[in-house]
Design brief:
Blueprint lengths: L2 E2 L8 H4 L12 H7 L1 H7 L8 H22 L9 E8 L17 E8 L4 H11 L5 H8 L18 E2 L1 H7 L6 H8 L4 H37 L3 E4 L5 H17 L1 H4 L6 E5 L3 E2 L5 E4 L4 H9 L1 H21 L4 E2 L11 H17 L13 E5 L6 E2 L5 E4 L4 H39 L4 E4 L5 H11 L11 E5 L3 E2 L5 E4 L10
Parallel strand pairs: 5-6, 6-8, 9-10, 10-12, 13-14, 14-16
Antiparallel strand pairs: 1-4, 2-3, 7-8, 11-12, 15-16
Helix pairs in contact: 9-10, 13-14, 15-16
């Protein structure tokens, strides 16, 4: 009596996906990951090395998607809250911009969608369709597992049944589309988001406190034992994961202490692969076994020799370019090993020798440049450094640097001034809200951080007391209780 059909605001999956969708069995977790390979290939952060903002957005959206997929696989789950995701999708053989935002000149486009699916298969299909990626490979995956021929399967109706609101009022059942409709009707504001998520963040933070103390203890002990400059992590792994990595390094130190002491004075970074980074940090790949780590520490003396050669090469390039300083900015450049960066510098240096550019000696002192392998035209960054392509035309390079030198100096001066203001506002905000920690993601500029902090200081936000607050590009409560808010957060009443 309560059932009727009515137009739906949400597209029916059976309509937007192939005709075989109604007959497909559920996917396993491993099959879902395999089916999403084209998607992962199109959005993987490692392909966005020259675009730090897009890289950070994709990395954080992938974390949230991973949590969503894990929850779908938990036995007895009832309903998940709608999850809004944003991805920057690279142009690939499979991708098409039909009906989507066109690709930028950098070869990617932004895709936003809201997940409110109830099983892995519909989730996978919805993601692929939202990104204009093919779903044909999923058909072959499903046709091998039907328990009965398709022709014998019962045909599902073209339009799904939609229950009237009175049905949920009468039975007390939760309307599964209620949360989604609320997302459509309302625009998230800082105060409303903190009201909805503050208690959850406090609980997670409280639960993580013992592990946070353990992490600090392990880090201090290993830094002292190995005489390290610092221990860092390239990715935003959870506290438990970081403790596990430090325990592994601690066990290795017990077995090969003298070998590990070769890293004296270095910074150790846990990352995706082992080696030495372009700036001389010891990179420990989290998927590598102790044997690989030991070999790396044994090779450190040869890495130090290469590092000295690299620094000499940077000085030689600087001399040829009027004293401009060659720098490597971790936050803005792709992660390169020492060998990869040396090779990049060597190619550029040899091109300069063949096409000698005439600069007045030391005329460009105080300026900075970074080398890029995937650009063909030089540019000036808002932070004041030059982006120089390895294979750029020397004549064009000379003209560009000379005409932009004054603007580069002004940009660098403004950067230093902004940095001072930024640090002052961080301290003031930390004090006003009694924050345990206030920090930002690497992709957040000083201008964005200053704007965010200025507007925060105008608010009264009791939920922030004692919290860890991260300024990012999105709203999220991290697994250890850190609150992430977008730098351009909105406030006021929700917009209906």
């Amino acid at each position: 009596m309560f059932c009727h059909l009515r137009p739906m605001r949400r597209l029916c999956l059976e309509k937007i996906f192939p005709h075989w969708f109604p007959y497909s069995r559920a996917l396993s977790g491993a099959e879902a990951v395999n089916a999403l390979r084209p998607f992962y290939f199109a959005v993987h952060p490692d392909f966005f090395g020259q675009h730090p903002i897009e890289r950070e957005v994709n990395e954080n959206s992938l974390k949230r998607l991973s949590v969503y997929l894990e929850n779908l696989q938990k036995p007895g789950f009832k309903s998940l809250k709608p999850t809004q995701l944003t991805f920057y999708v690279r142009e690939t053989d499979q991708s098409s911009s039909d009906g989507q935002e066109p690709f930028s000149t950098s070869g990617f486009r932004a895709v936003k969608f809201t997940l409110h699916t109830r099983d892995l298969l519909s989730t996978v299909l919805y993601i692929l369709n939202s990104c204009s990626l093919s779903v044909e490979h999923i058909q072959s995956l499903n046709t091998n597992v039907h328990t009965q021929p398709l022709k014998e399967a019962k045909r599902m109706p073209d339009r799904p049944i939609k229950w009237n609101k009175s049905y949920y009022s009468f039975t007390g059942f939760k309307d599964p589309d209620e949360d989604l409709e609320q997302v459509w009707r309302m625009e998230t504001t800082l105060t409303s988001w903190l009201d909805n998520n503050g208690k959850s963040a406090v609980k997670k933070l409280k639960n993580s406190l013992p592990l946070r103390k353990e992490l600090d203890r392990l880090k201090d002990e290993l830094s002292h034992q190995l005489q390290l400059s610092d221990i860092r992590w390239q990715r935003s792994w959870g506290i438990a994961h970081r403790c596990s990595q430090l325990h592994s390094l601690g066990r290795l130190a017990q077995q090969n202490l003298e070998t590990l002491k070769k890293a004296k004075g270095c910074t150790v970074i846990f990352t995706d692969r082992s080696g030495m980074s372009a700036v001389g940090h010891v990179m420990l790949g989290t998927m590598d076994v102790h044997h690989h780590w030991t070999k790396l520490f044994e090779r450190l003396p040869s890495y130090f020799d290469l590092q000295r050669k690299l620094m000499l090469l940077e000085d030689q390039i600087s001399y040829l370019l009027g004293g401009i300083q060659v720098v490597y900015i971790e936050e803005l450049q792709p992660v390169l090993t020492l060998e990869e960066y040396y090779s990049l510098l060597d190619v550029f240096y040899n091109r300069l020798l063949k096409n000698r550019i005439l600069f007045h000696p030391r005329s460009l002192r105080g300026l900075q440049m970074i080398l890029n392998s995937d650009r063909y035209a030089p540019s000036l960054h808002e932070l004041g450094h030059f982006n120089i392509p390895t294979l750029c035309d020397p004549a064009n390079l000379q003209w560009f640097i000379l005409t932009k030198a004054q603007q580069a100096r002004e940009n660098m001066k403004r950067k230093e001034e902004l940095k001072v203001i930024e640090n002052e506002l961080i301290q003031e905000s930390t004090k006003k809200f009694s924050l345990e920690k206030l920090y930002k993601e690497p992709s957040i500029s000083s201008i964005q951080m200053v704007d965010c902090c200025k507007r925060l200081l105008e608010q009264s936000l009791p939920y922030l007391h004692g919290m860890h607050l991260c300024v990012s590009h999105f709203y999220s409560v991290m697994q250890d209780g850190d609150l992430c808010i977008p730098w351009n957060w909105k406030n006021g009443e929700a917009v209906k």
